[in-house]
Amino acid sequence: MKKVILKVEGMSCSACQNRVEKYLNKQDGVSASVNLVMAQALIEYDDEKVSLSDLDRFIEESGYKSAGIYHEELEEKKDNTKYYLIGFAFLIIVIMYISMSHMIGFPVIPFLHMMNYPINYGITLLILTIPFIIFGFDIVKCGIVKLIHKSPNMDTLVTIGVLASYTYSIINLIFLIKGNYKLVNNLYFESSAMIIYFIKLGRFIDKHSKEKTKEAIKELVLITPQSAIIKTNKGEKEVTIDEVKKGDILICKPGMKVAADGIITSGETHLDEAFITGESLPIKKGKNDKVIAGSINIDGLLEYKAEKIGPESTISEIVRLVVEAISTKAPIGRLADKVSGYFVPGIMIIATITFISYLLLGYSFNEAIISFVTVLVVACPCALGLATPLAIVASEGTCAKKGILIKTSETLENVNKIDTIIFDKTGTLTYGNLKISKINNYSKYKNNELLTIIASLENNSTHPIANTFKDYYNSKIKISNFKNITGIGLFGNINKKEFYVGNNKLFKKLNIKNEYLKDEKDLIEKGNSIIYVFENNKVIALIGIKDIIRENAKSTIKELIKRNKEIIMLSGDNEQTANIIAKELGIDKVIANVLPSEKEKVIKELINNNHKVMMVGDGINDAPSLASATIGVSIKSGTDIAGDSADVILMQDDLSKIVSLFNISKKTINVIKQNLFWAFIYNILMIPLAIGLLKSLGLSITPMIASISMTISSLCVVFNSLRLKKINNEKN
Fold it and tell me: Does residue 310 contact residue 73 with C-beta atoms inside 8 Å?
């Protein structure tokens, strides 16, 4: 099965979305999910049965238009709608003044007086409202096409309502001109104009608001530079990004952006990767470290080998994952989809029954047609169609900005159902490599100065411990007479002083009594390896190094326990080491000495016992466990995310993002429920009002008021969803 995202033009409500989705899913070898907000269809298809051209044709056959494959460039098209709306707003004021000035006590234009000059009045309104019919021709055309295709949507409701009231008004105007002046009260040109204007205004505001929810994706797209500097035999050469090939050696100078994902071959610097990891501080990088396209080079000259370019880059992969997640459906949204599928035909039936009932009950044709139009306009299902997808898009944008990538919107909802969280130990709760855990400083040096001395010596060593100090290396410090003392440590001269770095065997070599045994014992009992530092045969420091707990791990575990989540630590380490880490973190349940396959077994047993399990791992040897869990969460460094088996990818080494994920999930579900509630309540309250069931209480509405209220209901859903863009990390 292949996967593609196609842009779909012409969708305006959930009925449109359902029509396209149902039609695509009826085709052999096709599975589709259509997103109204993004105007996209995420399609999985069997390329042996279906081609891309077939998919385009299927969309056309469903009554809409395929605009081809979605590309990240997100080209901005000039939209003059705002200026049209400003102009038509002025025209609306003129029309309303002519038609209503006599009702509200304003001075009436003499030759357009409704009673004194009815023909002038009627013809003027006809002429002034024709531009609105032209302005809303796209709505009318779409509504008619959908009706012909037997797939009525919101545009169909509006079209029938507008044409019915406008045609009725024209017929009355003809008889008015022939002398039946009483029919001047049956002209509703201004209502038709108002309906079109407010629907256009609502769609413009809605579109503008939707665009705001896509900002995170657009920001990612624009991050990668459009040019790069290639190293050639003749020197440096600036080329466009399209000319860069895998294996090219690229140069990145201070202040420039990295042009492609790759590996540093020469140089060191600090890189700003905040755009992808959310990490505010620059990260030090050197030879053999990976770089990500779009990273900003702060202070060093780098040469790096291009590995991933264009569609293969980390940025493109992130954009693809975010768009795919937005294009999938959350289970809670299926209720709205199901209702919307029957909603438009149902409203057309209700409006028709209302029209016939009015005539049978003895009401005038005028009252019957107005009630018919009002029902059609007030019931437009915009709010219902936007309730779920707009909230999902806003949440996905928020997650992306926080460095949390979610592969499907279903995952976003399921996070809220998790009751058990399993953490891998090494590489997840701990950093997975040796870190400095304790510095006993017995000297006049500051800690950073001590570490710089050690790093200068260790830089000449191939021992794994050397990596622990690489971030403190300073190339300006010169080492002379360097020696590697096998099984003991390192020696070197710095500024005419003799330095030793190594284990406690140095005391015997130097014939010095060890007066630091108590400190050494304390470190060893806590699982540390020890390093002594000597200056001119005098101990100046004792340092403990071990695989230490990640920053924020303890506070994250504490917060999750407070939220009544059962926490389990799985580890391949021995039980004693695992228990030391678990005790420090406040985890009561530990399962140690387990292989990756055994971790998967533990998760499946919990799921079989009706637990909703989240597995948090490093995404490498935890792949089977991540795939088996209800939700798999992978901690990554911001690279190689394409083949990740997790449902959620944390783009930086920060476990507190899991708490943020729970916050966002909870608030998203709450907002969706609020949206659905108000969308349903709006229709439940307004449709009886439009039918006229409450006329005995003095409550009724006109088509004009119906169009305004419909627009307001949609905007309530839009603005409520946009609140999700402002989620922070507060506890709730």
Answer: no
Q: Which amino acid is at 638?
A: G
384: closest CA among 19, 40, 713, 22? 713
Enter the tokens of residue 395. Answer: 């949440």
Taking the whole predicted model, whether its pTM rises above 0.85 is answered as no
Residue 319 amino acid letter: V
Q: Per this entry, what is the length of the chain?
A: 732
Active site residue 424: yes
Is 19:151 a contact under the CB 8 Å cutoff?
A: yes
- For 109, residues 6+ apart whose C-beta sits below 8 A from its C-beta are 97, 98, 101
Task: Supply angle C-alpha 696, 711, 140, rounded to 5.
Answer: 100
Residue 204, Cβ density class (10 Å: 0-12 exposed, 13-18 middle, ≥19 buried): middle
Among candidate residues 337, 424, 644, 647, the one labeled active-site is: 424
Give start and end residues of each alpha helix (H) in 214-291: 215-221, 274-277
Phi, psi of 535 (to 5 degrees): -125, 120
Q: Regarding beta strands 589-591 and 566-570, do their DSSP bridges make them parallel or antiparallel, or are they unpaired?
A: parallel
- Residue 615 belongs to what domain range? 393-425+552-665
Summarize pLDDT for 210-235 with one digit per residue, the tens. Answer: 555 455 455 555 567 778 899 988 88
Q: In what order do the strands lie in the sheet with 302-308?
A: 235-240, 227-232, 249-252, 302-308, 261-266, 290-291
- Same domain, residue pair 282 and 378: no
85 shares a domain with 197? yes
